[in-house]
């Protein structure tokens, strides 16, 4: 069975790598490793189809080392042992280990000595964030490089190269790729070269030549051959947390368009739970006392979303997102409680004043519990000067009000009056 176009076009020399010039360009780190033939183990991480396997193949081809490919999830320890035996017999082997984030402890323990002595140069490939998903023992023995989605110009160059290559590509076919079809193909797969080339090959091989034996690929043809790569993500993957982070930061930054975009990604992935939980957090962490009514409305919107489910849930949630984006922001309550918790963790606390302690039981008065407590409701405006914090924290202030919303401005005025009365 013929190999797919994306496989056939895989580079065999470092100069053939598409994109990733921050790693393989002149003077960049992987290029320097190859030129000096001074390789070290590395982990390449990034989205699918962006060149992780291609870089590994190009490194091996440029250095003339033996090149082997295994999958950490599906290949057994026995396959690793075969690679190690080959390295011991014939010298250095470059091992591309796909899905390295799924490497088990026994396989890892077997690999480590071979990485230490340099017999195996490990190139791990993963779509997951290695700082989160990969065991520190492997991570500490490898350099970590991020492989980024390819730019549209890189994708276009790769398409034209594939169309013109008669040996590995589609050069033996008389293809007329229309400009609008080329432009569409360069951006629709969002930097995934593998998907781009496989879509191109499907279009060429499934289109009947015209009377002049020309395979005409127009926009409609390419649209029918592209499996759309969604802008969403695996809700169980690392990118999930990046989208959630961008979602919250967009609301915090008062950008409703960006916030709606990132929420759309989450909803398109079917992740209603994360949207609801994050919105409730944002409402109280970032808006908080700046607009408490908006926080209450967010609770109502999330409740409605839970009851009606997707796709209709998007409507109350969009209302809440816009409301939160354009509300006055205040993190004063969030900062205040974290400051109080930090004091506790640092051991910075003391005994509570005796007059605040429980006095409902017999004998409490003999212990001084509750003695001297002043009941605020017995005084004008239900307030009386009285110490509540432990002596050690007597003058501590955790809550520092902001003035971004009318509600918290009113709270600040009240707090200022109370603080003045304490003097």
UniProtKB/TrEMBL annotation:
Report the CDD domains cross-referenced here.
AAA, HLD_clamp_RarA
Answer whether the UniProt record assigns the keyword Translocase to this protein.
no
User: Listed GO molecular functions?
Assistant: ATP binding; ATP hydrolysis activity; DNA binding; enzyme activator activity; single-stranded DNA helicase activity
> What is stated as this protein's family in its record?
Belongs to the AAA ATPase family. RarA/MGS1/WRNIP1 subfamily.
What's the protein here called? Replication-associated recombination protein A
Which organism does this sequence originate in? Ligilactobacillus ceti DSM 22408
Matches recorded under InterPro entries: AAA+_ATPase, AAA_assoc_2, AAA_ATPase_RarA/MGS1/WRNIP1, ATPase_AAA_core, DNA_pol3_clamp-load_cplx_C, MgsA_C, P-loop_NTPase
Q: Pfam families annotated for this entry?
A: AAA, AAA_assoc_2, MgsA_C
Does the keyword section mention Nucleotide-binding? yes
């Amino acid at each position: 069975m013929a190999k797919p176009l994306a496989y056939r076009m895989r580079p065999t020399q470092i100069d053939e790598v598409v994109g990733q010039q921050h790693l393989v360009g002149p003077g960049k780190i992987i290029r320097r490793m190859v030129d000096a033939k001074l390789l070290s183990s590395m982990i390449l991480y990034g989205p699918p189809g962006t060149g992780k396997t291609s870089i590994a193949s190009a490194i091996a081809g440029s250095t003339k080392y033996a090149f082997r490919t295994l999958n950490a999830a599906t290949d057994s320890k026995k396959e690793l042992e075969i690679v190690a035996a080959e390295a011991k017999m014939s010298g250095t082997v470059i091992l591309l280990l796909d899905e390295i984030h799924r490497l088990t402890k026994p396989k890892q323990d077997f690999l480590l000595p071979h990485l230490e002595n340099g017999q195996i140069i490990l190139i791990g490939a993963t779509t997951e964030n290695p700082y989160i998903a990969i065991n520190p023992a492997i991570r500490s023995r490898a350099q970590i490089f991020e492989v980024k989605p390819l730019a549209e110009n890189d994708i276009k160059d790769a398409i034209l190269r594939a169309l013109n290559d008669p040996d590995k590509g589609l050069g033996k076919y008389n293809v007329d790729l229309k400009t609008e079809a080329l432009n569409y193909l360069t951006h629709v797969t969002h930097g995934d070269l593998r998907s781009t080339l496989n879509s191109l090959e499907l279009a060429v091989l499934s289109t009947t030549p015209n009377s002049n034996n020309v395979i005409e690929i127009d926009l409609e043809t390419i649209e029918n051959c592209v499996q759309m790569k969604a802008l969403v993500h695996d809700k169980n993957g690392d990118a999930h947390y990046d989208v959630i982070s961008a979602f919250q930061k967009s609301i915090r930054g008062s950008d409703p368009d960006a916030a709606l975009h990132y929420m759309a990604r989450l909803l398109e992935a079917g992740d209603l739970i994360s949207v609801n939980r994050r919105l409730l957090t944002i409402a109280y962490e970032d808006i908080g006392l700046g607009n408490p009514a908006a926080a209450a409305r967010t609770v109502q919107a999330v409740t409605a979303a839970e009851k009606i489910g997707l796709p209709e849930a998007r409507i109350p949630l969009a209302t809440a997102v816009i409301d939160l984006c354009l509300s006055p922001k205040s993190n004063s309550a969030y900062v205040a409680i974290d400051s109080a918790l930090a004091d506790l963790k640092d051991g910075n606390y003391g005994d509570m004043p005796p007059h605040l302690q429980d006095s409902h039981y017999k004998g409490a008065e003999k212990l001084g519990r509750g003695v001297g407590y002043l009941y605020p409701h017995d005084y004008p405006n239900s307030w009386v000067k009285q110490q509540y914090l432990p002596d050690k924290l007597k003058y501590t202030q955790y809550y520092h009000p902001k003035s971004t919303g009318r509600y918290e401005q009113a709270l600040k005025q009240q707090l200022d009056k109370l603080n003045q009365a304490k003097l």
